[in-house]
Each structure stands twice: as C-alpha cells, then as structure tokens.
Specification:
Its cofactor is Mg(2+). Keywords: Membrane, Transmembrane, Transmembrane helix. This is diguanylate cyclase. It comes from Marinomonas aquiplantarum. It catalyses: 2 GTP = 3',3'-c-di-GMP + 2 diphosphate. By secondary structure, the chain is of the alpha/beta class. It folds into 2 domains: about 200 residues, no CATH class; about 140 residues, 2-Layer Sandwich (Alpha-Beta Plaits). It contains 13 helices and 6 strands. The protein has a 6-stranded mixed beta sheet with strand order 1-3-4-2-5-6, sandwiched between helices. Strand 3 and strand 4 form a beta hairpin. Helix 4 packs antiparallel against helix 5. Bound molecules: guanosine-5'-triphosphate. Guanosine-5'-triphosphate binds next to strand 2, helix 10 and helix 11.
C-alpha cells in the first residue's frame, strides 16, 4: 500500500521526481489548497477571522487547484508558479492581515511560510525568486502603515483567548509546512549529491578504461607505479608489443586487428588477475603488465602468456609479441624503468620478434 502510494499516486499528483522543483511546487499547491480549506473552516468555526477573510480563503481553494491542474497537466509550470506566488503575496497576505488581527494576528507566520516556499520552489527562477522574496519580506510595511491610518478596517479577535488559539494553530501549521519544505529540500540535496558522487565514480572509471579492450589505460600506469613503490613492493614491468601488427591490419582489415587486440587483452588480463598484477593498454598494439614478482618469476609468467596467446584460436592464425621485462630498482624513476623495459623490448624485436628479453 505504502509502495503503491509512492509509485502511482504521488507521481500522478506531483509529476516526475526527476523534475524536483515542479514536484515540490505541485506538492505545495495541493498542501496549500488543503491548508486554506482548513484555515477557512477553523476561522469560521472559532470566529478567528472576518467573514470576508474566510470567503477569500475558501475562494482560493478552487483557484489553487486550477493552478495545480494547469501546471501539472497542461505544463504551464513557470507561469503558474509565478501566478501562485503573486496570488499569495499580493492577495492572500494583505487579506489575511486585514481580516485576521493585523500586526498582532498570525499573518507574520504566513509571511515566513511564503518566504521559505519561494526560496525553495523558485530556486531555478532567479529574478522571480528575488521578486517573491522581496514581496514576502516587505509586504508587512505598507500593511502596517494602512493599519495605523485605518485601524477600523482590521478584524480583531474578540478575546485574548481566541487570539492565542489562532496564533497557536497558525504557528503549528507554519511549523509543519516549514518542516516539510526543509526536509524535502535536504532530501533533494542528498539525492543530487549521491547522483554527483556516482557520476564522478563512473567518470573516473571511464577515464581510466580503454574503450576497445576494457583494460586500464595509460592514465593508470604512473599512479600504480607510485603506489607500489610507496608500499615498498618488489615488482616488474613488462612492455609488450604485438609483432607485425601493421601487416595484420593491412592483410585482414582493421576490424580483425581489433579482434586480435581484444583476444590478447583477455589473456593478459587473466595473467594479471592470477598474479594480483595490473594489465594496461598503453595505446595501439602496445601493452604493459605490472606484476608484484621478481624478475625470474615475471619472465616465466611472460613465457606462459606467450604460449597462452599462441594457443588462442584466431581466425587468421597465430600472432606473437615481443616484450622487455625490467624489475623496479630502489630509488628508480618511473620513466627510467619504462625506458629500460622499452630498450629491452626493442632488443627483442631486433632479435627476430616472438621474443622476451629481461
Ligand atoms: N586494428 C587496430 N589497429 C591499430 C590500433 N591502434 C593502432 N593500430 C595500428 O597498429 C599498427 C602498428 O604498427 P607498427 O607501429 O608499424 O608496428 P608493427 O607493424 O606491429 O611492427 P613491429 O612492432 O615492428 O612488429 C599501425 O598500423 C596502427 O594503425 C587499433 O586500435 N586497432
């Protein structure tokens, strides 16, 4: 039942949660119409306001519901939000002031509620927000002047008890409304923050991933080297380059070249995973394998990798690679380690390819 309400009734009444300002605004319109109805009934029953005030409050109920209808179902959100704001600040506040005890009545509470509502619901409507806030804050000034000049037009509560009752009811209603607005605002703030955090995590993952093979890309290399060195690990870097890759592309097409790259990346990833290492595509047909092992064990792993790759079923036969393996020395710079591995890899190429040098 609770879920049904959340999933069906609320979206029907308030619109999509993805449009938070419209959602909040529709909620305010509906709550506002109920509050006006409740105020009209309470004011009439306990004689807390003039009859004119009660009638205006009653009239506002269908008007607000009509505004909700136009905003929710005919998509006049912005114009209806502005109309409602003007209605509340220019009509409801003055009439409430005059018909409900003037400066000693509960209208200041209403002002506060209106101010918070405008500040929250008009978050994206800068100029209108400022206008509404100014109206809500400044409206008591002319009203106070009118009251001082024409004190007789103000409806005053018959007894101090009735005034206290009215102030208390208004305070509770305003407090409740403020609480709802602030909770809604902070929930939305949390949602937006969670969304931003998720997006930044996704963005970071994407920025560190090679789109073709799914391996980490070169952005991961330096931070990984720095981290492993800081942890004082023994580790080796293997620079791997597929052999005669240009002629594979030329002979069998670029798409087939991509298939070979993906097939190699898969095998490389498996080895890295087994040895708790890191596989990286530097770019083109060039890869790096970082393994937390000594030189000899890394070399053996590379031999296994070469055999594994040769055993991979590729449409146009076996592809090989050449690699240079270097172990990180104490105090060695990242670039120096890479250069040693690169030099060894070129030695392997010169030695006829399908070769690993350490
Ligand atoms: N299919 C495909 N080819 C790529 C990609 N990136 C780079 N290449 C190609 O990889 C080839 C690399 O060629 P070379 O640098 O000459 O090296 P090679 O042919 O492998 O020769 P050796 O390294 O000396 O064995 C070029 O033809 C690039 O166009 C890619 O993402 N997909």
């Amino acid at each position: 039942m609770k879920n049904g309400l959340k999933q069906r009734v609320l979206p029907w009444l308030l619109g999509s949660r993805d449009k938070p300002y419209q959602y909040t605004h529709h909620a305010v319109l509906l709550i506002g119409s109920v509050v006006y109805l409740y105020c009209a009934v309470a004011n009439y029953a306990f004689q807390l306001a003039s009859l004119a005030n009660v009638l205006v409050q009653l009239a506002l109920v269908p008007i607000i519901l009509f505004i909700w209808y136009l905003s929710r179902w005919l998509n006049y959100f912005k114009s209806m939000a502005v109309l409602f704001m003007l209605l509340v600040t220019l009509v409801s506040l003055p009439i409430n002031w005059i018909g409900n005890g003037g400066y000693s009545g509960p209208t200041y509470f209403l002002n506060l509620g209106v101010l918070i509502y405008i500040s929250v619901a008009f978050r994206d409507l800068g100029l209108y927000r400022r206008l509404g806030q100014a109206l809500a804050i400044l409206m008591p000034v002319p009203l106070l002047m009118i009251e001082r000049r024409y004190p007789d037009i103000i409806f005053n509560h018959e007894t101090a008890d009735l005034l206290q009752l009215d102030l208390t009811i208004s305070f509770v209603a305003t407090g409740f409304f403020l609480m709802l607005m602030m909770e809604n605002y902070s929930r939305r703030f949390k949602l937006e923050r969670d969304k931003a955090t998720n997006l930044s995590v996704k963005l970071q993952l994407l920025s560190e991933q090679d789109p073709l093979t799914g391996l980490s890309n070169r952005r991961v290399l330096e931070p990984c080297l720095d981290r492993w060195r800081a942890e004082g690990r023994t580790f080796c870097l293997a620079l791997i380059d597929l052999d005669h890759f240009k002629s594979i592309n030329d002979q069998w097409g670029h798409n087939y070249g991509d298939e070979v790259l993906c097939a190699f990346a898969k095998v490389l990833h498996e080895v890295a995973k087994q040895q708790h290492g890191q596989a990286i595509r530097l770019g083109g047909e060039e890869f790096v394998l970082l393994l937390p092992l000594n030189l000899q064990t890394t070399f053996d792993c590379l031999i296994d990798l070469a055999n594994e790759f040769k055993a991979t079923q590729l449409e146009n036969g076996v592809t090989t690679f050449s690699a240079g393996v270097a172990q990180m020395q104490a105090q060695e710079e990242n670039q120096a380690l890479l250069k040693r591995a690169d030099d060894l890899m070129y030695d392997a190429k010169r030695a006829g390819r399908d070769c690993i040098k350490a």
